[in-house]
Amino acid sequence: MRNRLILLFLTLFLPLLVPAQKKKFRLPPDFVEVSGLQITAPDSIWWHNDSGDRPRLLLTDGRGRVRQRIALSGIQNRDWEDISTDPSGRLYIGDFGNNLNRRTDLRIYLYQPGTQRIDSILFAYPDQRSFAPPLAQWNFDVEGFFWFRDSLHLFTKNRLVAGNYYTKHYILPAKPGQYAAILRDSFLLPKRVVTAAAVRPDGKQIALLSYFYRMTFLGLLPKTRTSIWTFTDFPGTDFFKGTMTKTKVHKPPLIPTQYESLDYVSEQRVLIASERTIMFKPKAKQIKLKKVEKLKS
């Protein structure tokens, strides 16, 4: 009888004692230019900064409080842009930021938190012939990827100014080596460029985080727009052949905010994080995904 009472108490009250993941929180000073996040448990989130930081990972709880700062020796943070994981717990760190479209050292680091072993994937794009190519062909910058079905799926960030707003989908083997990426498909995101990507844990939906930036009022005021594009009911890994929906990320007017990281919290929610600016500290918030607009074919 006593054991049953203890079990009943734990069932009812233990969830109240576990720190819940907040729907909105500020990020600590370590997050100078956060560009990647990966949720591995309700109370465990991996993060990394962009090229302005040394090669390290930050592990926080679900409220953004830092638990560990892990320095990764023997590698560089040339331009880390996103992070993902696989069922074994291995982390993939994308050092493939390529704003000028001229890098020849694109790579993805494979990191095992348990053993601290680090391996590398080196890769190139099969359709890139020159470094850098003519400006009209600049679409070899990547800021979002994820692991899915033993492969890594990369999505390019097109040029924000004078680009054609197509994102390309490339595939790589999720194991150490040197490869030519496979170009699978491309998709038009009108007036948006991709800054992060994630796959839902059940594998039935993917999400692309995107934004748009321009100056308004005679070039005096910046204006940003952020959207999350989700794809469901896709055959195999042909994500762009699935059903596409768009969720707008609302923010206060006249406050420029650039979100560059994203992952799923639940089936209907994602967590996104913004970079630090001169006026605003970095923050993270949950977004409820909903169908608000469908593109016309």
What do these coordinates show?
The chain is mainly beta. It has one domain (about 20-290): Neuraminidase (6 Propeller), CATH 2.120.10. Helices cover about 5% and strands about 45% of the residues. The protein is built from 1 helix and 21 strands. The strands form 5 sheets. The protein has a 5-stranded mixed beta sheet with strand order 6-7-8-9-13, with no helix packed on it. The protein has a 4-stranded antiparallel beta sheet with strand order 1-21-20-19, with no helix packed on it. Strands 2-3-4-5 form a 4-stranded antiparallel beta sheet, with no helix packed on it. A hairpin with a 2-residue loop joins strand 2 (about 35-40) and strand 3. The radius of gyration is 20 Å and the shape is globular. It starts with a helix and ends in a 9-residue tail after the last strand. The model is unreliable at about 1-20 (pLDDT under 50).
CATH architecture label name:
6 Propeller
Shape: globular
The amount of beta strand, in percent, is: over 45%
Q: How much helicity do the residues have? A: under 10%
Count helical runs: 1
> Which structural class do the helices and strands define?
mainly beta
Indicate the mean pLDDT.
87
| Number of strand elements | 21
Determine Rg (CA atoms, Å).
20 Å
Major beta sheet, specifics? 5 strands, mixed
Low-pLDDT sequence parts: 1-18
Going by CATH, the homologous superfamily would be TolB, C-terminal domain
Terminal residue distance? 64 Å
Under CATH at level 1, the class stands as Mainly Beta
Q: How many separate structural domains?
A: 1
**Order of neighbouring strands in the sheet with most strands:** 6-7-8-9-13
